[in-house]
Write a structure and sequence with these properties.
10% strand; Rossmann fold; alpha/beta; five-stranded parallel sheet; 333 residues; three-stranded parallel sheet
Amino acid sequence: AYIRCFDVALIPYLLNEYSRFVYPNKLNEYLIMGKPVVSTGLPEVEYFNESHGNIVSVVHNHAAFISQIQYCLDQDSDTLRAQRTAFVESNAWDKKIEAMQSLIQAKLDRKAKMREQNWQHAFLKFYRTTQRKVGIVTTAVLVVYLLVFHTSLVWVIAEPLRVVQQPVSGDVIAVLAGGIGESGQPSDAYEEKINHAVALYHQGHAKNLLFSSGATRVFNEAEVMKALAVSLGVPREAILLDEKGGGNYFSLLTLRGELKTRGWTKVLLVTSLYNGARSQLVARKNLSGVEVTIVPPDKSRFFGEQRRVDWRHLRAIIHEYAAIAYYWSKGYI
């Protein structure tokens, strides 16, 4: 109500550290009522003035302050009063809030757009990286598959497991069994070893055979081995059986006992084609003073002619290397 009676409205703030950050709310109240305003040079008022066409008279000394009061009194008009009211309406709080909302919304929109772009970029990067990794893994698997199953790499790796020595004369031909299966019929490897041992017997390399196997299953494997050898012309009294077996290590320990009991010092050992290295390592450590000659069968239907590789070959070779590592860890070799 008092402002309506003003001819000129004054904002006479001293300039100090406090007033540097003051925005006088009276400024809007004066202007909305169309009153001319004379103010000291407050930074906020000067900023307002720059944005609103210098509608406020801003001065920086006492003389100018008095002079601008008189000037406003002389020059005021209905047109200027209407301009002041319009400027303030454009600077009202609802306009400010609307402007702030617009700024906030624009910022949010930019962030949303950036997130979308970043998501697309991240997805594209993930897709390309995954595609590249899948390509590398696929290529590696294909290369390994080709090397394993379509080259001689497996046989090169398996070669150190093969120990083939020239048959000599000995006291006994020992056969380490490989299993006969649930049907009670000899497997290929089993048959090959028996046939090979019997052939060595008939060639006069030794006068005795020892079959080692602890497998019973449906039939006693050692007995089946003996029956097969007898059917091939070996006298029963020339055959000894080790029905405890237990693998290379324990079979060779049993063999050691038989050799000691009978005073034998020379053995021809018939085992699987790729079991020679393990058998030789066990014999070297545990059969001191005994001459052991490793004589596997010349051919193996299980391993074929080494023109191709399948999973059973790979599994057998891995098993043999794993068994050597296990024997070493247990101190058997």
